[in-house]
Write a structure and sequence with these properties.
By secondary structure, this protein is of the alpha/beta class. It folds into three domains: 1-37, no CATH class; 43-219, no CATH class; 221-301. Helices cover 40% and strands 24% of the residues. The protein has helices spanning 13-22, 27-35, 78-81, 122-132, 177-185, 190-196, 223-229, 231-256, 265-300; strands spanning 43-48, 55-60, 69-70, 75-76, 85-88, 91-105, 108-115, 138-150, 158-170, 209-212. Strands 1, 2, 3, 4, 5, 6, 7, 8, 9 and 10 form a ten-stranded mixed β-sheet that branches. Helix 6 (190-196) packs antiparallel against helix 8 (231-256). It is globular, with a radius of gyration of 20 Å. The chain starts with 12 loop residues before the first helix and ends with a helix. The model is unreliable at 199-230 (pLDDT under 50).
């Protein structure tokens, strides 16, 4: 069902989702509309930081796998520093801390990550633990190009001479046996492991470009083909995974407040509603993953 709510009329995802669903929209369709909202100029690039501790290299001036270069001395940081929130996987509903001491140093953009306090939520605790163990080291910067030029005479690649930093996230990484083993040894929940080791979980719509820079965790399949054939499905899979995680967090918070010895009728009803929504989203996720696998097989053939 088409709804009147437009993502462009809302400042955050939660407000839009409430309005969209209240107007009769399907939750998955509403989430997809939010992800596909217009960001025609924003470019996002991913970099695997080799820094120590909580100091991250957000970007450097080496060519990325798309052959593009961001000149380090061209970064404009003023707007971002007004609200330097650190997100996980570009999810505005999943802040994990703030960026401090953003600076251009050694031909790269660097920043110190000040994590949220432990105890904020179980999910954030697990993300913090993975960062502290150096398992999560991939950073994605979103920026508005201010000035750019072709990198080569034949037109391949772009040199971004000036860019306005808009958003920076710690992002999910592909499955890695060693990192997975460490995560399991830390008793990281199955949901968080699935969300963090999401493989292609960052493919986005055509208006937002995400690319792996040198050393980053980038897909090795042909770029234009994968963006066309698997990008939308991967985006929907990631959004569904995040909804399931959020619902389970809300359910756990609700259960913590329930008196098991004397639960009220409203408490039981709320619990049943959460369980049904989680089951529904899990079924949606399974269907999307099967569709992605079938699409991948078709592309290979």
């Amino acid at each position: 069902m088409k709804t009147k709510a437009s993502p462009d009329d809302f400042d955050n995802r939660a407000e839009f989702m409430r309005a969209c669903v209240d107007e009769g929209g399907d939750e998955e369709a509403c989430a997809l509309r939010w992800e596909e909202r217009g960001e025609p100029e924003i470019v996002r690039k991913t970099h695997l930081s080799e820094g120590e501790g909580l100091t991250f290299v957000l970007s450097d001036a080496t060519p990325d796998r798309m052959g593009d270069v961001i000149e380090s001395d061209g970064w404009s940081l003023g707007n971002f520093k007004k609200n330097p929130v650190a997100l996980f996987n570009h999810n505005p509903d999943f802040p994990i801390g703030t960026w401090r001491n953003l600076r251009v140093q050694d031909n790269g953009l660097r920043g110190d990550l000040q994590l949220a306090k432990k105890g904020t939520s179980e999910r954030i605790n697990e993300i913090i633990s993975l960062i502290e163990q150096n398992i999560l080291r991939a950073v994605s910067v979103g920026f508005l190009p201010i000035q750019k030029e072709p990198l080569t005479k034949n037109g391949s690649g772009i040199r971004f001479l000036a860019a306005d930093l808009v958003e920076t996230s710690i992002v999910a990484i592909p499955a890695n046996p060693n990192a997975l083993a460490v995560a399991k040894s830390l008793n990281i929940s199955r949901d968080t492991v699935a969300m963090v080791f999401a493989g292609k979980g960052n493919e986005k719509d055509q208006s937002v470009v995400r690319r792996g820079s040198s050393g980053g965790y980038a897909d090795t399949t042909p770029k234009r083909r994968s963006a066309t054939m698997s990008g939308p499905l991967a985006k929907r899979i990631e959004a569904t995974q995040q909804r399931i995680v959020a619902l389970k967090d809300e359910l756990q918070k609700h259960l913590d407040a329930v008196d098991d010895a004397n639960p009220g009728e409203a408490d039981i009803t709320t619990t049943q509603e959460f369980n049904k929504r989680i089951a529904d989203q899990t079924a949606v996720l399974k269907s999307l993953e099967e569709s992605e696998a079938n699409t991948a097989r078709t592309a290979a053939e």
